[in-house]
Amino acid sequence: MPSAIEQIVDAYVRLKNRRGLDELMMHRQRLAVDLKSRSGYDFSLPIGKIDEEIAIIEAGLSRLKAEAADPGATPPS
């Protein structure tokens, strides 16, 4: 079963919503920077999760870019 972030990214890709993906990416990047600058607690787990989500969003952006370059291609089911 896909995670929530995978489902969100898939929806944005299907809708060709580049802006939504960009905003999602910026939000996750801000969270990562904020958590990495904090001390006094081990934030490695949430930072790892956010890094995973950033990778999923990057993959979605790549899919969107590939579809834009080849508009005749059928999306995977």
Automatic annotation (TrEMBL):
Organism encoding this protein: Bradyrhizobium betae
Domain of life assignment: Bacteria
Record-given protein name: Uncharacterized protein
